[in-house]
Amino acid sequence: MAEGAKEPVGVGTTDPEEDSPNMIVYRKIEDIVTRIQDENAGGVSIRTVKSFLSKIPSVVSGADIVQWLMKNLSVEDPAEAIHLGSLVAAHGYIFPISDHVLMLKDDGTLYRFQSPYFWPSNCWEPENTDYAIYLCKRTMQNKARLELADYEAENLARLQRAFARKWEFIFMQAEAQVKIDRKKDKAERKILDSQERAFWDVHRPVPGCVNTTEMDIRKCRRERNPHRVKKSVYGVPDDGQSQPSPVHISSQPTKKTTKEDVQKEINFLNSQLDRHCMKVSKVADSLMSYTEQFMEYDPFVSATEPSNPWISDDMSFWDLEASRDPSQQRVKKWGFSLEEALKDPAGRDQFLKFLESEFSSENLRFWLAVQDLKRRPLQDVSSRAQEIWQEFLAEGAPSPINLDSHSYERTSQNIKDPGRYSYEDAQEHIFKLMKSDSYARFLRSNIYQDLLLARKKVSCTH
Amino acid sequence: MGEMEQLRKEADSLKDQITAARKAVQDTTLQEAAAGVTVVGRVQMKTRKTLRGHLAKIYAMHWGTDSTLCVSASQDGKLIVWDSITTNKVNAIPLKSSWVMTCAYAPSGNLVACGGLDNMCSIYNLKGKDGNVKVMRELAAHTGYLSCCRFLSDSEIITSSGDCTCVLWDIETGTQKTVFAGHQGDCMSLAVSPDFKFFISGACDFTAKLWDIREGQCRQTFGGHESDINAIGFFPNGNAVITGSDDATCKLYDLRADQELITYQDSSIMCGVTSLAPSLSGRLLLAGYDDFNVNIWDALKAERVGVLAGHDNRVSCIGVSSDGMACCTGSWDSFLKIWN
């Protein structure tokens, strides 16, 4: 990436090029998880719980975690704390000791913290060989807590078929792992076994659960070496069996900034400097008054009349919108701006009617003709552009519009090679004219006021 | 001092001047100015319809201008046009490439477009003579994935790409009319101004740029985000721009003040923003996040006023219909939901 145009990066020492979106989230979660385990700094109390004849080491209840989150992250709503905690669990940083499903419950369910060795930020992408070794070694140990769940048994069966020819190798690796595990202290093993299981719950989730390690394919190119040799959980060398995912590798060679690049940047910056910045108070006012004006038309904020078709299954709201017989509320919108009036087909009709009564409809007709020109298929553009010229701008035109000489010059140049946007300049000029002149009169006219106040027309009765 | 170093110094000095000019007009903040505005109150929306039919992650959706039809694109290799009121599929278009990342509905309702890892924008005619939906044009020239596309009319479309450029195409001839180059990272998203004269793009260089469609130049650049900008949209009056980023925040930039006015963030929101859409009045900002939720913000006060929770995986796309009646969300869980 060329330097110079990038804004300074925010907090932390992280290199933006290395950080995939998942990594950004991992770092935030790790910050929370580190704090929550720090018993000296207001963290939860991690303790051993007695259960029947055995002890459950190093656990904390879901309720305690929820409490801590609410207190330390200023979360007022317990539902939000649970959502946040479930996010932390879904990424495998905390896990329920007796369930494969990684979510947080606000009750006495017991949870354990994941070992930093297994943290997702270490960019684990464990291969199926590792998973096979893992499931295999679990079947070798005669412990109730290590029994395979149904989906795991199915996975194991599938892996046995897939790795039929190297199963002996996998079996030996599994045996070696069991030997290593046996050497560890009993309590330590309970903890490590559960952490290992939680690791696999993240990378080989229960069917129906989300795989949180999945990345948006658009971001995959961020990985500096997408086809790098992946490390094995059990120290098994990579034999090239990995399936490459459809990673998009940027075809852009990283360019060095040239003098021309910097000069271009300087030119751009100069044009920026020339622009006049409006005061924040003024633009803030503008935003606030816009929202205020339109809030009564915003169905998410105000009740709609007639009823919202999505809720009542009654289509009359749309029927009314489509009709050329507008409601008072709709007519009111035409008064907000000329743009709003012209957006509504009924508004266009009424404005045109008013202008005709003043014998000044050529401006609006010109504006409408140019709008239409922009949507024409290429083959019609040239002839249509000529027609517009003849009607509105040529000498002796039947509906002459009033253009300043500068715009007139530009437009007549454009017409020599007619295109969809030949009248852009002229159209803008005419729009400004209508806005400052006839539009204001329209709003004061009887035609508009009658509709706005829903005055019934006095009918002559004979 | 070498020439290069001199040029860099000049650029830096100009940047400082621009920062100073922006600061000079900061006589208040949007939050302060809006302190007196009446609160919106809790916004509670329910799922009114669930559109089922896709078999894999949904990456994009776009409303048609009639406010009931919408199109969605999924990695199951299908583009589906839905009648969202009846939940019927009006069209189910099989795609050549299943790695689709974006889709768009033409304002006329006649065409839809899509593209993705094939680096192309494919235009489909929905109103063909024999009733079959066929590829009308394949716009190929980008050297990176197609991240977003938006129609100006049936004859012109703008695309953004992972090759760091945006392009204005003439659909009839299938040629590039203008290339908008300047971003230093993948362009992820684009939005067209209400008057169709400008468009904005958000990119992986953490900036958003405003482009003049006819002149082909970048008019303004906005920075401040700390990570990729994934989503971008215009405030309904066309004078402000809203961006959503992997840094878990959304920002509002005003075009006339040439600076950021407000940031929408909360310490309890950790996941990136994938998509956003303002409500009709602009008072509410709906943003979809990687944590499966949509958060609803009071755009003037930067306070969270609601949550849409219902998807079982990331919310990848969101759109508010043109009459403002309904919000549609699409997710990696393969469903689209209509809320209001």
TrEMBL record, chain A:
<dbReference type="Pfam" id="PF00615">
    <property type="entry name" value="RGS"/>
</dbReference>
<feature type="domain" description="RGS">
    <location>
        <begin position="337"/>
        <end position="452"/>
    </location>
</feature>
<keyword id="KW-0734">Signal transduction inhibitor</keyword>
<dbReference type="InterPro" id="IPR016137">
    <property type="entry name" value="RGS"/>
</dbReference>
<protein>
    <submittedName>
        <fullName>Regulator of G-protein signaling 6 isoform X2</fullName>
    </submittedName>
</protein>
<dbReference type="InterPro" id="IPR036284">
    <property type="entry name" value="GGL_sf"/>
</dbReference>
<feature type="domain" description="DEP">
    <location>
        <begin position="40"/>
        <end position="115"/>
    </location>
</feature>
<feature type="compositionally biased region" description="Polar residues">
    <location>
        <begin position="240"/>
        <end position="255"/>
    </location>
</feature>
<dbReference type="InterPro" id="IPR036390">
    <property type="entry name" value="WH_DNA-bd_sf"/>
</dbReference>
<feature type="region of interest" description="Disordered">
    <location>
        <begin position="231"/>
        <end position="261"/>
    </location>
</feature>
<dbReference type="InterPro" id="IPR015898">
    <property type="entry name" value="G-protein_gamma-like_dom"/>
</dbReference>
<dbReference type="Pfam" id="PF00631">
    <property type="entry name" value="G-gamma"/>
</dbReference>
<dbReference type="GO" id="GO:0005886">
    <property type="term" value="C:plasma membrane"/>
</dbReference>
<dbReference type="GO" id="GO:0043005">
    <property type="term" value="C:neuron projection"/>
</dbReference>
<dbReference type="GO" id="GO:0005829">
    <property type="term" value="C:cytosol"/>
</dbReference>
<dbReference type="InterPro" id="IPR040759">
    <property type="entry name" value="RGS_DHEX"/>
</dbReference>
<dbReference type="GO" id="GO:0009968">
    <property type="term" value="P:negative regulation of signal transduction"/>
</dbReference>
<dbReference type="InterPro" id="IPR044926">
    <property type="entry name" value="RGS_subdomain_2"/>
</dbReference>
<feature type="region of interest" description="Disordered">
    <location>
        <begin position="1"/>
        <end position="20"/>
    </location>
</feature>
<dbReference type="Pfam" id="PF18148">
    <property type="entry name" value="RGS_DHEX"/>
</dbReference>
<dbReference type="InterPro" id="IPR047017">
    <property type="entry name" value="RGS6/7/9/11_DHEX_sf"/>
</dbReference>
<dbReference type="GO" id="GO:0008277">
    <property type="term" value="P:regulation of G protein-coupled receptor signaling pathway"/>
</dbReference>
From TrEMBL, chain B:
<keyword id="KW-0807">Transducer</keyword>
<comment type="similarity">
    <text>Belongs to the WD repeat G protein beta family.</text>
</comment>
<dbReference type="InterPro" id="IPR036322">
    <property type="entry name" value="WD40_repeat_dom_sf"/>
</dbReference>
<keyword id="KW-0853">WD repeat</keyword>
<dbReference type="InterPro" id="IPR019775">
    <property type="entry name" value="WD40_repeat_CS"/>
</dbReference>
<comment type="subunit">
    <text>May interact with RGS9; this interaction stabilizes both proteins and increases RGS9 GTPase-activating protein (GAP) activity, hence accelerating the deactivation of D(2) dopamine receptor-mediated signaling.</text>
</comment>
<dbReference type="InterPro" id="IPR001632">
    <property type="entry name" value="WD40_G-protein_beta-like"/>
</dbReference>
<dbReference type="Pfam" id="PF25391">
    <property type="entry name" value="WD40_Gbeta"/>
</dbReference>
<feature type="repeat" description="WD">
    <location>
        <begin position="139"/>
        <end position="179"/>
    </location>
</feature>
<dbReference type="InterPro" id="IPR016346">
    <property type="entry name" value="G-protein_beta_1-5"/>
</dbReference>
<keyword id="KW-0175">Coiled coil</keyword>
<feature type="repeat" description="WD">
    <location>
        <begin position="51"/>
        <end position="92"/>
    </location>
</feature>
<dbReference type="InterPro" id="IPR020472">
    <property type="entry name" value="WD40_PAC1"/>
</dbReference>
<feature type="repeat" description="WD">
    <location>
        <begin position="308"/>
        <end position="340"/>
    </location>
</feature>
<protein>
    <submittedName>
        <fullName>Guanine nucleotide-binding protein G(I)/G(S)/G(T) subunit beta-3a</fullName>
    </submittedName>
</protein>
<feature type="repeat" description="WD">
    <location>
        <begin position="222"/>
        <end position="263"/>
    </location>
</feature>
<keyword id="KW-0677">Repeat</keyword>
<feature type="coiled-coil region">
    <location>
        <begin position="4"/>
        <end position="31"/>
    </location>
</feature>
<feature type="repeat" description="WD">
    <location>
        <begin position="180"/>
        <end position="221"/>
    </location>
</feature>
<dbReference type="GO" id="GO:0007165">
    <property type="term" value="P:signal transduction"/>
</dbReference>
<dbReference type="InterPro" id="IPR001680">
    <property type="entry name" value="WD40_rpt"/>
</dbReference>
<dbReference type="InterPro" id="IPR015943">
    <property type="entry name" value="WD40/YVTN_repeat-like_dom_sf"/>
</dbReference>
